[in-house]
Amino acid sequence: PPELPQPTPTELRRLCFTPQEDCIGRLLGYMQSERAGIDVAIYHLYDSRVSRLLLAKHQAGVPVRVIADRHAYTSQDKQAREMNFLAAGGVPVYTNRHRGIIHHKAALLHGLGLVMHGSLNFTAAGRKFGDEWADEVSFFTTSPRVFARFKERFDRMWNNTGDAREAFQPFVAGMRLPSFEEAEQQPPTTCYEDPRPSPRPLPDDEQLALCFVPDQHCNLDVLVPIIKAETRRMDLLVFRATSFEITDPLVAKVRAGLP
Length: 259
Hints:
8 helices, alpha+beta, globular, 15% strand, 259 residues
């Protein structure tokens, strides 16, 4: 294959695996030095270390924005505790109004130009903690293009609020949110994302391609072409595999003799 451009020596690209590593602790270390702004989009947030530091940063004058999932709020007392703690302290918190869930696990640190993203929720399972732990991975990078794409994504979500049919709403401590079952019975909102996105998508990093659902079809447009192009071997680590879009081409590869 053609040789790809290499990141600059000062550019961070690091994987972190739990439970062997405290990836949340690593994130907190970066957050401690952040002065320009912190954005968090998160499914499960109940590692209180994160909430306490976000509130401390907010109180110190660092702009902080949090997007959290309402299903996690209604189904997890620990999630409700942390979201109420942040909102009561004045941290701007939004929650989704649209059907479905917020499944991001991402943090953007604007002064450092750093993104953390991956499968890791911000919970005690992100570190070895008694009997509660999980095999997860997070990727830390200061790739400018990765940061720019995540920032555009976060801003589109944050700006899609106001009207009752738009996809996000400000969260107020103690407010009642509909359960997942109640929300799924409601008519869908107009759009998950800002209905007025940039007409020109930002370019990907040469080595790090990003795919965001639901406005991109990551199975068919990204994963399936990779599967079909592979000629040597494939290993997969996956939580759920419930789509024939993925399993059919995998089975075809196995039948063709690919390990």
